[in-house]
Amino acid sequence: MTDGGDIGGGARKLARGEGVALWRQITQQMEREISGGQYGPGARLPTEAELAERFDVNRHTVRRAMEELEGRGLVRIEQGRGSFVAEDVVDYRLGPRTRFSENIRRQNREPGGRILRVEEMPAEAQLADLLGMRRGRPVVVVERLSLVDGRPLLIGTHHFPASRFGRIPDLLKENPSITAALVACGVPDYRRKVTRITARLPTAEESELLQQSRNRPVLVSEAVNVDPAGEVVDVTIARYAAGRMQMVVES
């Protein structure tokens, strides 16, 4: 350990015996480094042991500082994984006409994404009921990873009746926009009829795709979308990285 808490890199030493608690000084120093961009959103911070050595204090003092940062919303602490810089939270608005790209651009952010898989499969009982079709009838499944400013926000799995939307796989090869594919299939507009929202822990695959810990929950929405005539277009199951967004329900 260094005498006096020399923390290097242009950072300030801890002032000992001058009336300001050491944990508070560490809090202020870490806050400066986070706000200055030394640690970006979602970045892992040094461990308690590393910070204790850096500041020449015990781990209890470091823990008190990190708890203060967490209380201010600057840091999130995950048991068994460490401390991370809190990420900017996206307001994800749910309304009758929710469109991902429009939703994100309204907040001056950049939407993006990629299609993970496209396949045809038989509808199981619950899905068939939501789609208003017989069990075992074919559905087109399109799974997409959606990004905000280059970071994963949600995994959306769309289920379309193959009898009506069998062209979607070929259309997506030409243009990856699902909305454009629906227009080409004769559906210029659609709206949410009903949405159910739950929460659970992610699977290993979801955790990897969303770049988040398996002990952090995902929000899961199940939406039934219909065309202007009220016919079911698709059932979409979306899994959201809960730490990066908050849902805003619009009436």
From TrEMBL:
Name the GO terms of the biological process aspect. Answer: negative regulation of DNA-templated transcription
Q: Could you state a single Gene Ontology molecular function term?
A: DNA-binding transcription factor activity
Where in this chain does the record put each HTH gntR-type domain? 20-88
Task: Respond yes or no to whether keyword DNA-binding is given for this record.
Answer: yes
Q: Which InterPro entries match?
A: Bact_HTH_transcr_reg, Chorismate_lyase_/UTRA_dom_sf, CP_lyase_PhnF, Tscrpt_reg_HTH_GntR, UTRA, WH-like_DNA-bd_sf, WH_DNA-bd_sf
Q: Identify the keywords attached in UniProt to this record, alphabetized.
A: DNA-binding, Transcription, Transcription regulation
Determine if Transmembrane helix is one of this entry's keywords. no
What PROSITE patterns does the entry give?
Answer: HTH_GNTR
What is a single Pfam family found in this protein's UniProt entry? GntR
Source superkingdom: Bacteria
Name the NCBIfam families for this protein: C_P_lyase_phnF
Q: What is this protein called?
A: Phosphonate metabolism transcriptional regulator PhnF
Which organism encodes this protein? Falsiroseomonas algicola
